[in-house]
Design brief:
This protein is an alpha/beta fold. It has 3 domains: about 130 residues, Response regulator (Rossmann fold, 3-Layer(aba) Sandwich); about 160 residues, GAF domain (Beta-Lactamase); about 150 residues, 2-Layer Sandwich (Alpha-Beta Plaits), CATH 3.30.70. Helices cover about 50% and strands about 20% of the residues. Helix 11 packs antiparallel against helix 12.
Length: about 475
Amino acid sequence: MSERRVLIVDDSDVTRAVLARTLRGAGFAVLEARDGVEGAVLALRERPDVVVTDLEMPNLEGFPLLRLLKSDPATAHIPVLVLTAESGAASRFWSLRTGADGYLTKTHEPQALIEMVERLLREAPPAAPSEEAAPAGPLDVLGRVARQLDRSLLQATLVNTLLERGMAAADFDEASRSALETLGEVVAARFLAVAVGEADEAMIHVLLQEPIREEDLEELTGRLVESLELAPTTPVEVEFSGGRGDGEPVDLGRCVWFPLAVRGAAATLCFLPREPEAFDARTRALCEGLTGHLALVLDNARLAQRLRELSTLDSLTRLLNHRSILDRLAVELEGARRYGHPVSVILCDFDHFKEVNDTHGHLAGDRVLREGAAALRRVLRATDVLGRYGGEEFLVVLPSVDLDPARQAAERLRKALERSSIALPTREEVRISASFGVAASGELAERLTGDLLVSLADRRLYEAKAAGRNRVCP
């Protein structure tokens, strides 16, 4: 059995002597250091099996010594036991948070020290390979401490910036973009991306720091989707920020991937270093240290967005719900009064929808509503607003549009639905049509309100149904 060595770091000669006698009596070889600097030199040079250190010492106290040993690859695996006269909860908390593997007060029984050291030896991880040279002396140790503190300050600043920007974001895309921009300030990458996937949807955001070819972006998106292990039918929303266009081919095989612990979802961070050979262990450790905070930002944004959607969106069609579409109509009417612009509405009702439910079942009816709503959305302008008014009725708000162009828009919607063929899970196909009522703000003049405008469109909708359905009125 190889000799087991314990390094004792304490400025008290008496304490070191008592501890050394106890440990030697239990079969350990003992090294001794009188302060934190000497302890750091011995730990980095001799690589003991366990370090036992006091907290209050001259030259270098226990906390910076602990951070140095745990941050240096040569000593990070060595268990550190804090042995101190301080019994306060704050001291214990900060010792363990800083990296200590155990904590004892100096009022302990000798057997407790032996048992703790034995446990730390059993649980110690294997040593990692290290190419860094052992310190030449105290000045080298202090230089390492300064570099470690500088890295800790960088990490803390990045975490603070990441949380400050991310928690202030309005939605998932804004939170993702701000988080990736923060990470991109310290990682030279051609692109950075995050992906979060749940059972019913997935969201991907890619930040481009230089132009990337479209074919490479398509392949990247595919790899991100694959990393989430989604069901084939899961809808995926992909957003890009930064410059797109022609660029040099990229080797996606050299991407760096980090899993993210987002509650109830699969999530990943991916980026391609601009110089993969220069992506060293310290940069990787810096990124790993940020992943937990990045996951927190994305989780917060995702849940906040979901909460807002629950209050504003229809759960089946993902369109604005009844209250929200009427709120948007009120906003558009207020702007129309102020600036003299027209506003039109279209009220749409699917023809013979009850027959779909009676013949094929309510799940088939849900699919017809969902895919029919998507067909309507595809025909509308980006500035038009579409919502589920209720049941199989949909309301469209057309800003800056008068009656004639609104009627033409309704006709385009009617034709789009008429051409639609919706496949059911039973492999049957359902064809649908709808009737439309159109009304414009100019028809009501001074009596204009949202309720009156929708009521006028509703009367015309029933006129269209009475005239045979699948038509627009007026």
